[in-house]
Amino acid sequence: MNTLLQRYRAQLPHTCSGPDLIVLQSPAPSAPSAGKVPWGCQDGLPAHVLGLAQRTYWALLSQRRDQSIVALGRSGAGKTTCCQQVLEHLVGMAGSVDGSVSVEKLQATFTILRAFGSVSTGHSRSATRFAMVMSLDFNATGRVTAAQLQTVLLENSHVARQPEGEGNFEIFSQMLAGLDLDLRTELNLHQTVESSAFGMGVWSKPEDKQRAAAAFAQLRSAMETLGISEVEQQAIWRVLAAIYHLGVAGACKVGRKQFMRFEWANRAAEVLGCDYEELNTATFKHHLRQIIQQMTAGPKRRGLKDEDTGSGLKMTGVECVEGMASGLYQELFAALVSLINRSFSSHHLSMASIMVVDSPGFQNPRHQGKDRAATFEELCRNYAHERLQLLFYHRTFVSTLERYKEEGVPVHFDLPESSPATTVAVVDQNPSQVPLPARGEGSEGAGGLFWVLDEEVRVEGSSDSVVLERLRATFEMKTARAKGKGTRQPLQCEVPHQLGQDPVRYDLMGWLHRAKPNLSALDAPQVLQQSKREELQKLFQTRAKLPPVCRAVAGLEGTSQQALHRSRVVRRAFASSLASVKRKAPCIQIKLQMDALISLVRRSRLHFIHCLIPTSVIGSKGGQGTPSPPQPCGDQGGADESPALDIPALRVQLAGSHILEALRLHRTGYAEHMGLAQFRRRFQVLDPPLLKKLKSTSEGIDERKAVEELLQTLDLEKKAVTVGHSQVSVHLRTSRPLYRNSDDIQFLSHPMPYHSGSPSSRL
């Protein structure tokens, strides 16, 4: 803790924690410079996100193996900015084969993603509402051949329903403020109203509108950089304008399910290139189409339809309009990802990839001083963060200790008592995987929250209270495994996130409606694909070729070998629970999207960036008068006084991330490990007689014998190096000087500078 605080006060927010990196959100601008991390160095790199990127790059070249960099932390801690810095540094350092991937294109990509995938909240001006994997493919010479963007967990419902204190996606305010007069007239946006149900087109200050107009001009420039044509841009504005018109049109809350304002619904149909009746049927009259399909289908198919749709909760008119808007936005976001991938595509052969993972951060209303319970969307974001924390737990502890055991390396270290698996099980535990006791009260349906919602939504007359009672019964039955507990408030429960260090209270009111497949959202792709406007048809027809089970994932297009492999991994993840996907169960699809993301990166070598928030963002009691939040990694303009450090919050973040336990294992165990042959080839230069002997031999080399002779010559400290069954493990105190000596001899033209900082950059 003292090291982190001293470095933070010295404007050094980055600290190495073993193989990973800790980044404290800095209130002062700290733009990276080439002098901080010299290009071409493999060792002695300073603690910085660019240093981690460079170590990952050299690991890819030396191991010929995929690498992944995963950012973890609270919402607003600066994960997206760190990921952007990593990607830009890798491309700038390695260079591109044919210029298809450049720093300018990456900057344009993040400009588009921030506009379409970020919202303004009480703690961040640009909070991410989707998860992404940005992959850079490299050839054998270390140059970038192609890139691919894949996105999951898009919070598309945010376009129609925003929590208190949060705005809509930034693109709507930018478009409504920046469109020229001709486009406004063409899109029927020459007249706007302030009563939009989706909260669009409202600016608290005139300068906010000017800032949004400037951001829109920057967005259009970014689209031109990525080769998005004027016609394609107009198709994008048409879909956004249609969503705005739907928000103004609204729906009748009583009586028939229909639009409340006919003229605005007609404007939405006009910009989408369809008739009003087509839009009205796709939005409200799914039950009529289902009846016709069931009557014309055979008996077997009819029974399957009944099982798929379920007889549970009925949809209101407002939910139908919200579903259509959400479905349109999801298709638009996926089309944008396809256009980005088109700009990065290449047919060059690649050797391995570096994948950078960014996801919405952990969020607790208490962090902003709010006394409300968390929402279903916040549960999904926190669940995604817990899955990534579980990935860190398995890589750091489980896999490492298993490798020590298999190699016969003596390391005395016990697994931490707490694990993120406990909290993950509360949310997504499959009932078929739970060993149940004898039949009795509370022995049925012992699944996680997602499975309970998926089951109850198909039960006629079920309610949110039934879901809560089943969860309470499950938690009481497995107290030691899932330490969830009910609260005295109705329809509320508490989930022990962050290893129980930062529990979150959730309100289950209306969650069954969220778990019901929204038929309007499912019909949105057909509205776009069957549009009478050619530019809309051309933009969205490519999505029609994808299998329906993968609709929730954007960016499955790709022509390179690496891109095709990643797409197959995603499809296999969804095929593992095909029945739930066919039934269009939203909760199970969230789990499967995280399964696909984890499957993409778990076989690569993982590197983690822990982004921590060292200061409190609470302005006053109850969250009133909350100041403008600091922007991650120096995005905030100059403030004269630094915010006060929040030591208890920093300790909670450290304790809830297993950072200290990981550091203890890194110091106790062996920091580096490699195969016998790889170790011999890497360090035989330190023993010239052995090197001469190996070059003169004509028979096969006994790698174990050669390594033992090499270690005798090196005369290292006892237990500094351990030879296992197939690998050599090197202790932390020996690895750095050993690597430096060998590199100094092998790369005399590129000496490895040793960077020392005060205070030390390493924990």
Automatic annotation (TrEMBL):
Gene3D superfamilies: 1.10.10.820, 1.20.5.4820, 1.20.58.530, Kinesin motor domain, Myosin VI head, motor domain, U50 subdomain. GO terms for biological process: actin filament organization. Residues 620-640 are annotated as: Disordered. Keywords: Actin-binding, ATP-binding, Motor protein, Myosin, Nucleotide-binding. The keyword GTP-binding does not apply. It comes from the Eukaryota. ATP binds at G73, R74, S75, G76, A77, G78, K79, T80. Transmembrane segments: none annotated. InterPro entries: Kinesin_motor_dom_sf, Myosin_head_motor_dom-like, MYSc_Myo18, P-loop_NTPase. GO terms for molecular function: actin filament binding; ATP binding; microfilament motor activity. Coiled coil: none annotated. Residues 1-743 form the Myosin motor domain. GO terms for cellular component: cytoplasm; membrane; myosin complex. CDD domains: MYSc_Myo18. Belongs to the TRAFAC class myosin-kinesin ATPase superfamily. Myosin family. This is Myosin motor domain-containing protein. It comes from Nannospalax galili.
